[in-house]
Design goal:
Length: 344
Amino acid sequence: MPAPVRISLDAMGGDNGANVVVPGAALALERHPEMRFLMAGDEAAVRPLLEAHPRLAAATELRHAEITIGMDEKPSQAVRTGRWKSSMWKAIQAVRDGEADAAVSAGNTGALMAMSKICLKTMAHVERPAIAAIWPTVRGESIVLDVGASIGADAPHLVDMAIMGAAMARIIFDLPQPTVGLLNVGTEEIKGIEIVREANRMLRETPIPGLAYHGFVEGDDLGRGTVDVVVTEGFTGNIALKTAEGTAKQIAAYLRAAMNRTWRARLGYLLARDAFDALRDKMDPRKVNGGVFLGLEGVVVKSHGGTDALGFASAIDMAYDMAQHQLMRTIRDMLGETSADASP
C-alpha cells in the first residue's frame, strides 16, 4: 500500500459545513484507502457525523475549532478576528507545521487566500499566488489560471503562472511538456494590451524546461482544448469561469425543456438516454471541483462553497494528487531552472 497522504480539512467551511465535508471525506477515503485526515471544526457538530462513518472516524484526527469563518466575511475581518481559533486557520496551519500534506476548504475564498499567504508564505521567485482550475474541453481537460486569486497582473506574474500551471499539468495529465497559451483578444502578435504582449515576448525568448509555449489563445479555445494550460489574470479568469458554469446550466435547462415538450421528444430521450447521461456526466461541475492555490509554500485546495459530498470528494482527490506527486517540488524545480537559464 502507498505511503499515507495526510489531508487537513476545514470541516466548517462552505454553505453546508460538516454536513458535506464529512460524507465527502468518506467518499474520498473509499477511493484512496491509505489517506488520513485531520479535521478542524466544532467538535459537537462534527463528532456525530464522523461516528456515522466508522472507517473515516478511524482514519481521522478531529481538532476542535471555536470559530467558523463566514462565507460573506471580509478577508481582513476574518484575519483579524478569527485567525488563530478558526477551523480554516487550523487546517492551513497543519500544512505549515508538517502535520498534513495538503489542506482543503470550501470556505470564504478571500479569507482562505489571505490566511494561506500569512500562514504558508509565497514561494521564492513568485510575486503572487494564483488559483488554478480544471476546465472540461472537447479534447479532455485543460488547466486555467488565474480564476480569481487577484485582480490584474504584470508580465513577470503571467510568466510565473505559466510555469506553475505547466507544473500542475505535468502531474494531472502526466505530460512531460504541456502546451501553454496566453488568453488574449486575438492570436496575432500585435493584439492585446502591452502587459500581455510583453509576457508573450518573455515566454518566447526565455527557455523554460518542461513547458511548450503555444502563443496567444482566444476565448473559444478554452472549450476546444487548444492548449493544456491557459493563463490569464484573475479578473478575466473568474469571469470566464462563471460564464462557463452559467452556460452549462443554461444548456442543461434548454435540454430538459426540449425533452419534455412533446411525447415524441420524451420518447427520443428514452431512446438516447445513455448519450444524455454521458453528456450530463461530462458537464457535471462536481467532477472537476477544486481550485489549487499555486505559488504558496504548501498545497491548499479551494472547493466550491455550494458543492455536495461528491464535489467535495473531488476537491480532496485534487489535493491528494498534488501531494502524492509532489507539486511543490515540481514547481520549485521549474522556477529554479528558469531563473538559472534567464541569468546572464
